[in-house]
Amino acid sequence: MYIIIMDSDKQLIPTIRQAIYRGENMMDDVKFLLPLTYKKFDLSEFTVVLQYIQNNKIVHEETLTMDNPPLRNDRLSFSLQLNSIFTKKEGKLKIQLRVTKIDTEASVQYILKTSDCCIDILPSYYYETGDESEAEIGSKLEEIGSKLEVMDSVLATKADNISLDSENGEIVLSSSGSKIGDSISAKDLGDTIVEHTTDGLVNILI
After folding, report:
1. Would you say the C-alpha torsion 39, 117, 88, 80 has a positive or negative sign?
2. Which residue among 42, 98, 128, 168 has its CA within the 20 to 30 Å range from the CA of 157?
3. Alpha carbon distance 29, 65 (integer Å)
4. SS3 string of 6-63?
5. Full-model pTM
C-alpha cells in the first residue's frame, strides 16, 4: 500500500511506499489522506480526481473513492486500486490531485490543485503480455463473451427440427427441444396442398 498525505501547503508527501511492479493488477492500492478542511472549505464535499502521466506524456484522470469509514488519523481518506493500466510502463508515474466543487447557486466552481509526486513502477523481467495490458486483454475477453451471448440468443430462435404433433394434429418447429414460432394445422396444410396440386390428391374432411 502507498500512503500519500496532502499537507496544509497542498504538497503531496508519500509516507509509506509499497513496491509496485510492472504488470501487476488490482493487488495494491494507493491511499490519499487529505485535511478535513482547507481554509474555510469542507473537503468532504469536494470531488477528488487523480491526474497521472505515464511515459507517453498523456494525462489520464481517475476519480477517487472516499473510504468507509472516511477518516484515517483525523484526515479524509481516499483510495484507488492500481490496475494494469497504471502499471503498464515501468518508471516514474507522476501524479497530482485535482479537488473540485461546483456551487450551483453562486455559479462558481472551486478548484484546488496539489503539487505532483511520483509512484515508482519497478521493472519486471518476466512481464510477458506483450504490448497489451491485462486490463486490455480482460476487456477483449468481455467483448468476446458478449458476442457469444448474442450468438446464443440468435441460435435459440433458429429451428433445428420439425415434427408432427399427432395428438393436436399440428406440425411444429423446435430449437434444442423447445417449440418456437407458430404451429401449422395438419388439416390446413393438407387443404392447401390439395388446392394447389393436380397430382390426384383428394380433399378429405377429418
Report:
1. negative
2. 168
3. 12
4. ECCCCCEEEEECCCEECCCCCCCEEEEEECCEECCEEHHHCEEEEEEECCCCCEEEEE
5. 0.58
Q: In degrees, to the nearest 5, what angle opens at C-alpha 48 toward C-alphas 114 and 91?
A: 60
DSSP state letter for 131: T
Q: CB of 13 within 8 A of CB of 117?
A: yes
Task: Identify each DSSP E strand in 39-169 by its residue range.
Answer: 41-42, 47-53, 59-63, 65-72, 75-81, 91-103, 108-113, 117-122, 161-165
Q: Which three cell numbers stand for residue 60?
A: 489520464
SS3 201: coil
The model's pLDDT over 89-127, given as tens digits with 9 standing for 90+, comes to 888 889 999 999 998 888 899 999 999 999 988 998 765
The H-or-E segment that residue 204 falls in is none
Q: How far apart are CA 204 and CA 186, in angstroms?
A: 12
Phi, psi of 55 (to 5 degrees): -65, -20
In terms of Cα–Cα distance, which of 124, 119, 122 is closest to 17? 119
Distance CA 57, CA 102 (A): 29
| Helix or strand (DSSP H, E) at 128 | none
Count CB atoms within 10 A of the CB of residue 111. Answer: 11
Cell of 35: 485535511
**CB neighbours of residue 97 within 10 Å:** 22
